[in-house]
From TrEMBL:
This is GNAT family N-acetyltransferase. It comes from Macrococcus equipercicus. The keyword Lipoprotein does not apply. Residues 1-147 form the N-acetyltransferase domain. Keywords: Acyltransferase, Transferase. The keyword Transferase applies. GO terms for molecular function: acyltransferase activity, transferring groups other than amino-acyl groups. InterPro entries: Acyl_CoA_acyltransferase, GNAT_dom, YpeA/RimI_acetyltransf.
């Protein structure tokens, strides 16, 4: 079950930090976003954060699944929810960004129909104090993907 969360203190910060380790950045964008949790057996196992950006565009700024529940289709379920939410609210485009090191996420997003739009070079070097590694690869560039709805 996917539930909208209006009270920021009810959001699972531990899950949000899995996708974005900069707590100050996370707190800044969740305050401006529509935030949803995925609940299974009365336990929060996922989170997705949707932010209207440019006119007609909705961005998925954070999506995370509890590690114990990963690779079971829950991220796909949240992405499908976001796409439908964007369509139902009249958005023309949906976007998502991820690190160059996020191999599994890049594969999933493309399987879902997102296409690479551009690369924000040195994004993680410029915006994060600490180095981020995933899959033994340093996160340096932000890969931006989009889908026309």
């Amino acid at each position: 079950m996917i539930i909208k969360v209006d009270r920021l203190e009810e959001l699972p910060i531990d899950l949000l930090l899995l996708a974005d380790p900069a707590e100050e950045i996370v707190k800044e964008y969740i305050a401006r976003s529509n935030n949803y949790i995925l609940v299974k057996d009365e336990k929060t196992i996922g989170v997705i954060v949707l932010l209207p950006t440019r006119p007609g565009t909705l961005e998925i700024v954070n999506i995370a699944i509890d590690p114990k529940h990963q690779r079971k289709g829950y991220a796909k379920k949240l992405l499908e929810f976001a796409i439908n939410e964007a369509k139902n609210k009249g958005f023309k485009h949906i976007e998502i960004g991820t690190a160059n090191s996020s191999i599994n996420q890049l594969a999933l997003y493309q399987k879902m129909g997102f296409r690479i739009n551009y690369i924000d070079k040195d994004y993680f070097l410029k915006n994060y104090h600490d180095e981020i590694f995933e899959n033994d690869i340093q996160a340096i560039d932000m890969i931006r993907l989009y889908m026309d709805l």
